Amino acid sequence: NADQAMYLSKTNGRNQLTFFEHSMHAKAMERLKMIGELREALPRNEISLYFQPIVDLYTGKITKAEALVRWCHPREGIIFPGNFISLAEETGIIHELGDWVFRNALACVKRWKQEFGIDIQVSINKSPKQFLKKGHTEEWAELLRNSGVAGNNIVVEITESVLISNTAVVSENLRQLHQLGMEISIDDFGTGYSSMGYLKRLDANFLKIDQSFVKNMMTLPTDAVIVETIILMGHKLGLKIIAEGVETEQQRKWLESNHCDYLQGYLFSAALEVDDFERLLKADAWP
Ligand code: C2E
Ligand code: MG
Ligand code: MG
Ligand code: MG
Description:
Elements: H1 2-41, E1 47-56, E2 62-73, E3 77-79, H2 85-91, H3 93-116, E4 121-125, H4 128-131, H5 136-147, E5 154-159, H6 162-165, H7 167-179, E6 183-189, H8 196-202, E7 206-209, H9 211-216, H10 221-236, E8 240-243, H11 249-257, E9 262-263, H12 274-285
Parallel strand pairs: 2-4, 4-5, 5-6, 6-7, 7-8, 8-9
Antiparallel strand pairs: 1-2, 1-9, 2-3
The protein binds ligand C2E and magnesium ion (3 copies).
């Protein structure tokens, strides 16, 4: 009987191992397939740039927009960045993708100015990997020059994780972006390795309060205190504050009475395809 039990557990173990190997293998194959498809996504025009308006809290007008990528996959439908940005970062595809986002954002800003006479600031998300590529800022300087767009029409959003990667290289990059007239925004503020020290070094222009705090500030007193404090501190450091993920009128009112500067969220609009965004932009500029 002991033999039998041994036999059973062995086969069982073996079966489990094969099962495990199979699922690992399937996962690896799935990943390889996705990498291949992601590489082809740009040349096949499957990537598109959506825009989410950012409104001035006091005038209610759209003064900025955040550019957010979407992958329109032929079989899977729309894939959100949360499901492919990290793969793009691991494979280096992020460089090509990030450059494409920048060029596309420049082209849109230029067209909105030329065709509609509307001048807004567009923010783009930049991943830590992009900062570490040699000669990167020079390439962007060239793209900016060729576009004819003013540097201050572009805001570069970075997360706090950028700051722990390589402080010297990153600071130098940010300095160069500033020299080109571009502005810097610290995204998802309060969630990462928040250190007050880098706020001083960075010379950013905007702080974006992470949506998790905004989501809970009406119900959790601690989150309300955090938001209030970020706004006060940001202002004292000369930064403008953007609240992310604003979904209710109650939140908007609270942010207004606490002197936040800009809001972004479903209350006003989700990220829109460029045609829809342009319609909204025009309706907002010429009511
Ligand atoms: P993020 O930069 O913090 O962007 C804000 C995210 O919150 C967007 O998700 C936006 O659609 C969503 N959002 C906006 N308002 C609301 C709201 O009221 N409620 C809720 N629940 N969500 C709201 P999205 O577009 O899925 O992007 C997710 C993240 O992917 C972004 O977070 C950003 O970190 C990254 N990402 C997007 N585009 C790019 C890109 O071009 N390059 C890089 N490196 N990262 C990108
Ligand atoms: Mg962002
Ligand atoms: Mg954010
Ligand atoms: Mg986020």
